[in-house]
């Protein structure tokens, strides 16, 4: 098993929101981190900020020996297999074997079931479910060869329970939880854990979009729309990205090796069963 300093963590959708908080949490724990997404400007800005905040420390430096911080980015669309293969190849060339995969990239759309068209269904399934599948298929063989790995899929409370007007999103996240449980059993005796983290409404652009949608469709003010989203959380507040990231970082630790096949809600008590 590699030491913490040598481990390479790959975070999809790491340029902003929950993924960026996860990248930061893993950098703090001395992993080499690659963030991936489609928006190169956003990724470059995020990587630059993180490299300034977490400059090279002993035992942690870029594989090219330049002394740069242990953060890099690759441009990649998780819904496109060829793009995923290219992005992961680039990341492995730069920072070595991927020991930790965080399947965080995701999109959300909302509409009543009868107004959810086939394109929306395809988008939700192609990004949220198949994006997770493509990335996992690409990194799992090397994890199996090394006999150690951590896969954390960012699902949602919508992967644990139903909500109205998000049937496609909810189905895609339930599928991610099913995939997590099944794969966890397949690799349970091979040194690899597979878990899902299921945030409730979390303070990111996805929630900002949901707030805007509620305001347009219901005429509520921004404060009222945000309160409506926080209403489902028994703590009456939105989850913070760092709270999700903390759970992910814990699951990646060697000491969490008995945790597998779980779908852990980070939602202020909204989901308990
Ligand atoms: P966000 O701020 O909108 O970030 C989404 C990330 O996913 C972005 O970095 C985006 O990067 C990436 N992404 C989207 N489509 C992609 C694609 N086809 N290929 C590669 N990257 C893609 O949203 P977030 O709230 O942080 O969401 C992160 C994850 O948490 C998602 O899986 C989401 O479903 C889940 N989640 C969020 C909440 C919430 O309330 N915020 C609650 C439960 C679960 P690019 O734009 O660069 O591609």
Characterization of this structure:
The chain is an alpha/beta fold and 273 residues long. The protein has 2 domains: 4-200 and 240-266, NAD(P)-binding Rossmann-like Domain (Rossmann fold), CATH 3.40.50.720; 204-238. The chain has 8 helices and 7 strands. The chain has helices spanning 17-28, 40-53, 81-95, 118-146, 167-186, 205-218, 222-231, 241-252; strands spanning 8-12, 32-37, 71-75, 98-103, 149-154, 192-199, 263-266. Strands 3-2-1-4-5-6-7 form a 7-stranded parallel beta sheet, sandwiched between helices. α4 (118-146) runs parallel beside α5 (167-186) and α6 (205-218) crosses α7 (222-231).
Described by the principal axes of the CA atoms, the overall outline is: globular
How many structural domains? 2
Number of helical regions: 8
For the biggest β-sheet, the strand order reads: 3-2-1-4-5-6-7
Distance between the termini: 34 Å
The profile of the biggest β sheet is: 7 strands, parallel
Rg: 18 Å
Q: How would you sum up this structure in a few lines?
A:
By secondary structure, the chain is α/β, with parallel strands linked by helices.
What keyword list fits this structure?
single chain, 273 residues, Rossmann fold, seven-stranded parallel sheet, 8 helices, binds NADP nicotinamide-adenine-dinucleotide phosphate
